[in-house]
Each structure stands twice: as structure tokens, then as C-alpha cells.
Fold:
Amino acid sequence: MTILYDRGSAVEYGEKWWNHFNPGFLSFPVDGTNFVSQCLWAGHMPMELSADMEAGWWYQGEGTEQDRYSFSWASSHSFRWYFGSRRGVQLAQVVSECWQLEPGDVICYDWQGDGLWQHNAIVAACDPTGQPLVNAHTPNCYHKNWRLKDTEHWTENTAYLFLKIKDAFPLSTIGQEK
Structure:
């Protein structure tokens, strides 16, 4: 069985929730990666379930003992490494230029350029020159230029990673869709 990534649904979700939290999910003080994960999930990205928070990419919601989600669901650095260097089934391809992205793809941000990834944003649209415009949480952004130079976090050392989300995923090799 193959799961098709629905870029339109991922972007539509980001358009709806860019400026506030969906009450169906946990919110985090630094919520950018959680927001991007929700967008991907809305686009039918299959979860890779695990009992270990350090494995897979998944969200199980609020529980009675503890909230259940993988680090890659909510941590920018874990997300970057899960999607950007996954062995086996590739969920995304790292591309070298921003113009290779389209709505529904993801940009990862390393504000200090030191190898520690602190932010993610979803590509919501492209401007007339082909430059990606992103939606994000923390800071909340709507159709901002992908560089996010006007945010308090941006520095001259900011590094970017461009993740081109695959259009189809063989479910049997990824895990179980929730």
C-alpha cells in the first residue's frame, strides 16, 4: 500500500493554524516543530510509531500519565535528523536550493550555524520570483520570506536545510499510520 502526501492539505492546515494552537494537540513554549509536524500529518505523512520517544516520528496525544510523542515530532534538531538523513525509506530529500521547494515542503533553521537545529517552517506558497514563503510557530509567521531575517532569532550565521517531502510513501516499509 502506498500513502500519497497531500501537499494541499498540509498547506491548508498551516494556513488555518499559523497564528494559534489546535486544541486537539499539545502546545509547546517553542512550538515550531510541533506545528510543522501537525501540517505534515494533515497532509497524510504516515507516522512511524514506537514505544521509544527517541525513535520514529509520532504523536499519541495527551495521556493520563504523560503526554506521548516522539522527540522528532516536537524537537527541531530531532526532526531535522529524522527527515533529513533517514536510512531506508526516504521521507524527504535534502535539496541544495530554495527554489527547488514547493508548498508542503519544509525548511530547517540553525540560527547560530553551529549544527544545532532550532526551528522548522512549512512552505506555504512561493512569491512571483519562486522564493518560498513560510508559515511557522514561534515566532508565528504567515507567508514570510523563507530566510526569516526579520525575526529575533536570525543571525548572520543562520544555516538552512531544504527538505523536499516525497510525494508517496510505501506504508509497509515505514510503519503504521495512526
Notes: DSSP finds five helices and ten strands in the chain. The longest strand covers residues 119-126.
